[in-house]
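Hi R.,

Here's the chain you asked about this morning:
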Amino acid sequence: MQEKNNNDLVSSFAPDFASKSVQEKLSRLGINCESDLLLHLPLRYEDETHIYPINDVVDGKTVQVEGVITHTEVMYRPRRQLVCQVTDGSGTLHIRFLNFYGSQIKTLAVNKRLRILGVARNGFFGAEMVHPTYRIVQEGEPLAQALTPVYPTTAGLSQKVIRKLIGQVLSQYKHTEFFSETLPDVIRTQQQLASFKDSVTLLHQPPPDVSSNSLQARSHSAWQRIKFDELLSQQLSMRLHYQQRRSHSASSLPLKNKLTQAFLSSLAFELTQAQKKTFAEVSHDISLPHPMQRLLQGDVGCGKTVVAALAALQVIENGYQAAIMAPTEILAEQHFDKLSHWLEPLGVNVAWLSGSQKRKAKTATLVEIASGHTMLAIGTHALFQDQVEFKQLGLAIIDEQHRFGVHQRLELCLKSNKSGAVPHQLMMSATPIPRTLSMSYYADLDVSVIDELPPGRTLVVTKLIADNRRNEIVERIHVACRAGKQAYWVCPLIEESETLQLKTANETYDTLSELLPELNIGLIHGRLSAQEKSSIMESFKLGETQLLVATTVIEVGVDVPNASLMVIEHAERMGLSQLHQLRGRVGRGSDASVCILMYQMPLSDIARKRLKVIFKYSDGFEISKQDLNLRGPGEFLGARQSGVPLLRFADIEQDIELLEAAKGVAEDILTQYPQLAQQHIQRWLGKKKAYLRV
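And the predicted structure, written out as tokens:
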């Protein structure tokens, strides 16, 4: 098989291909050269090969009819609109245009014959279509011989122009490298895949006998080839990045069992089997001479912090420093409190660094970190500022990694050792990642999963209650707090909003203070200073505050075992991950805990589905799977999608078999056909092939 060079596949358009104006519009769609047009595949297809009698049209179905205009009128009630009556002898169809030009009134004159394509509806006056596509035809004019593709487009770029340009590429370049095969014959045969050229041509220009259902459902063999290629390009790029990272040097920091064993002996509990297994995986990676890049994931409360502490101690007992970066000051301070309590008795100096620190304290901390006296630095994004210098950073631990931007994570990891070695990196997430998402978008990482909770953790009972029963909920809070328990009341906004009429933290605090005067009630939100937040949380942890009214600033990191009741206001406005994280703030002690999701009617369809999921499931992995189904990977991934190409055609849940096949052959292609692998990545990713470096 001859391998061709596809470097010119990323070139710009030929000078005479399209006007500058059209090229600018194409660029908005990510189309910058002729080969990009090949992969600008149809969203759907319209069937203009049949004419349906008006009398036979079905409500809600897209059909094409043909008839003669018998009446045209501009109506002004209930709003200005152009209405035409069209008849074909079997019945009458009304077509309505809510936005129209004066020229359309002349075009749509009585006795004109129209061919109309649109969604038929049963309107007040019978069958109708609103804003259908139409054209003037002569009686007996031939019908289209194939399905008509409908492409993704942008303002000012018509379907007609896109179809014309794609037709040009298909005819002019059908014998060039644009259609060259990037899959080895043996793999294409093994996977039973159609050729790239045949697949692309069929999808742009489907023949008359092709199954319209298989095209619309994207189950046709041509779609299978395209989806396989797209998934393979992602797997190849991620594997290349993985290999590239393993070619870098890092300090080899083996387990010496000094500080780590002393720490384990000091704990009042024994590690779970899952914690032991994940630490063994992390420990092994840290001992290797190339940088670890491992994702440690597990449900809320599974004990990721203990594993992180052990990893930090392994680095420290080798004479290196470790850093833990958290997305909020509350979470960073929780880590500082817990880890300094655990590690300082072992002789480990732990420092705290945040953006809100006074200059004198910050300067002193910076000196301690630079000198190496600080063995473990904990903080927020302040850790990766230019003025922060480590003497010998061996490990960067990033908690709730999806909350940081790519560049923020990169900045911390670029703080190399004097030898030029790259620090090991451990990322932690309490938002479990579904298996398919992990296979697809996290293929460049090693993943460890803590899949069991420590003994003694109680299951949180979840209740869905409408906000018209607010008084019952307030009374339940009253009874619980008088019995010595503590509670959270979570609100989504700090101040009143005209667009979202939601109960706010300030208003709720005032109301609850009035209704429950004998309780000590606190208020915490993101606009308080770090010192104020720290003081309020300390009071709550000590039991001095019985009820804490809060915004979602308490979503992660807050650990108060005596808090056993949570009310989440306007739960219908929150995402599944956020609801699960918030719910994880209770049930951290031995007492039975309850999370009340208070919602406001009417509920949207998506809100109803979210609340049903959070009510039904307590397992974070199942919730994340349901969340992926509801939201899709783009929103689920958050900041990570920068640099990782999102899939346009494949669906990682529906196309799991193709994903597994692509994952299975990626390594073989990279090893045995490296030039084809590069051509494949070039075709599918082009200038977007700068995959994540962190």
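The first helix runs from residue 20 to 28.

Let me know if you need anything else.
M.
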